[in-house]
Amino acid sequence: MRKQIAAANWKMNLTLDKAEALLDGILSENINPTENGQVVVAVPFPYLIMVNEKVAKRKGYAVAAQNCGNKKSGAYTGEVSVEMLSSIGVEYCIVGHSERREYYGEIDEILQQKLVLCLDENITPIFCCGEALDVREKGKQNDFVKTQMEKALFDFSASELKKIVIAYEPIWAIGTGKTATSEQAQQMHAFIRSVLAGKWGEDVAQDVTILYGGSVKASNAEELFHSPDVDGGLVGGASLNAAEFIQIIKALKH
Ligand SMILES: O=C(CO)COP(=O)(O)O
Predict the structure, then answer these.
(1) pLDDT digits over 39-50, tens only?
(2) In ligand 1, which atom is closest to the CA atom of 94?
(3) Domain extent for 156
(4) What is the complex's ipTM, to 2 decimals?
(5) Which of 131, 169, 189, 244 is catalytic?
(6) 3-state class of 37 per DSSP?
(7) Domain harbouring 221, CATH code
(8) Looking at CB atoms within 10 Å, which of 75, 149, 181, 185 has the fewest?
């Protein structure tokens, strides 16, 4: 079975004391994900080392950055390089979250540069894609997501592509409480996998983990994750509550 991932995205929330308390809460219940299961906690930069120290001891847990610089190193004030992330033990990095695309002007070319740097440093990128409400209302969501994939992913070889995790996050479902139905999620995930198969072949497509993100909660995680092409979730709001997130981890397919 492909890797099944429950990923928390804390976004720009929590002070250090609260972040530590939340992590301790998540780790307090000794859930060891199965062989194919992985828990990833994507935290603000200042907390990466603290979180990594705690999760490194736990099998099946890893820390992620929420973003990275698109240049290797140098005079880029305020940026954090992939090499720095790697040097402190970060294993995953979110790339191309819709909030980065929308509020920080991250265009496809920048995202592609970040993906290349992550792969160079053996950091697994979690590449986000997904359409806004107006696109879905016009029924154009497949074309939209395919174009996002073509622009950011299509230059990679099959072996590189297999190292990337994809997160489908429809913008209309992020932070809105309006979750995609499990049918909508499954349809899009199957479509994404068919795009991967068309470009790199069915075997490669079957190996890629595709997460769903957008108002995942303890109450809907099991139904969403049960869909054959949904390999877990990228969770915002509900990951700020330890009890909720623990239930979401438990909902991963075994
Ligand atoms: O953007 C998300 C995760 O990256 C989803 O956020 P919510 O779970 O708060 O909708």
Answers:
(1) 999 999 999 999
(2) 4
(3) 4-251
(4) 0.99
(5) 169
(6) strand
(7) 3.20.20.70
(8) 75
